[in-house]
Design goal:
It is built from ten helices and twelve strands. The chain is an alpha/beta fold and about 300 residues long. An eight-stranded parallel beta barrel has the order 1-2-3-5-8-9-10-12, surrounded by six helices. A two-stranded antiparallel ribbon has the order 6-7.
Length: about 300
């Protein structure tokens, strides 16, 4: 069982560098950044992972641009994997985005994880001039384009939303045949997208039981796509709070699938996740401030990471 961490939402470059470097020193698999360009004034009722649809962060919480942040952290680390959880694929031009991702993979010596999703916040799509209703179909086309540009010597594409021909695209990513694609989402469409494009199903804010219930459907469609279901990694992202550490929990909306309990409760949950077929866990911490983030990280590394590693 591998464990990764969600990068805190902070505009503090020194704190972010220390967080990523400490995660690397402690042996975590990865650090992953979320993706929002803007958030709506007054909040939202569209977030799919809370009972009210309210987003778990206030509208004025700072979100650094994902790929810029990953480039900064790539230069600050040397071995830990870096990625997105998840980048909203339709927000950015597909060719430019493929170039940015390939460049990050080259500059990090092949450490990039490309977590991808279709997005959910209609106001953000409206602000960026991207059709909300077409987000799924556009995502699929953009993923086709990524794969072509990353692998083909003379790439050409003619789709509904984008087309090109007669171009060269270099450098290719270090990781071949592709930068690993971790497909986010919890719907049947997301599972089918994973079966077609993904190296990993990276769902978020769900329980282990929910994940286990979806695995037969994922395996069925992966096999139908002519791929080996065993080659798909299963990843679950969740909020985590230790009640026996003495670090106060941050106020705010709690999202679904949260792990909240003693260290032993967390250990038991990790073991259960592995038992039902989950290969990787990504945690964000429901605490405020970088020092508390670091304290929770170090406790997780000391008390939970060794057991998770032994689970295989």
């Amino acid at each position: 069982m591998k464990i990764g961490l969600s990068i805190p939402r902070s505009p503090d470059p020194d704190g972010l560098r220390r967080f990523a470097q400490r995660a690397e020193q402690l042996g975590f698999e990865s650090v992953l950044a979320g993706d929002h360009i803007v958030l709506p004034t007054g909040g939202t009722t569209q977030y799919p992972y809370t009972t009210t649809g309210a987003f778990s962060s206030p509208a004025d919480e700072p979100f650094l641009e994902t790929l810029t942040l990953l480039g900064y952290l790539a230069a600050s680390t040397s071995t830990i994997k870096l990625g997105s959880t998840v980048i909203i694929v339709p927000y950015r031009n597909p060719v430019v985005q493929a170039k940015m991702l390939a460049s990050l993979d080259v500059l990090s010596h092949g450490r990039l994880i490309c977590g991808v999703g279709v997005g959910w916040l209609e106001k953000e799509f409206e602000t960026l001039g991207v059709p909300y209703a077409a987000r799924g179909a556009m995502t699929d086309e953009w993923l086709d384009i990524f794969k072509l540009l990353w692998t083909e010597r003379d790439p050409a594409y003619h789709g509904t939303y984008y087309h090109f021909a007669g171009i060269q695209f270099w450098p290719k990513p270090v990781q071949q045949p592709s930068i690993p694609l971790w497909v986010g989402g919890h719907t049947r469409r997301a599972l089918r997208r994973t079966a077609t494009y993904g190296d990993c199903w990276h769902t978020t804010r769900q329980t282990p039981d929910f994940v286990a219930q979806q695995l037969p459907y994922l395996r069925q469609h992966t096999a139908q796509a002519g791929r080996d279901p065993a080659a798909i990694t299963i990843s679950l992202k969740r909020s985590l709070h230790f009640t026996d550490l003495g670090v106060p929990e941050r106020d705010g909306v709690r999202s679904g699938g949260m792990v909240r309990g003693t260290t032993q409760d967390v250990l038991d949950d990790v073991a259960y996740c592995r038992e039902v077929g989950i290969d990787q866990l990504t945690y964000d911490f429901r605490v405020g401030g970088m020092e508390d983030q670091m304290r929770v990280m170090e406790h997780l590394a000391d008390r939970v990471l060794p057991t998770a590693t032994q689970l295989g």
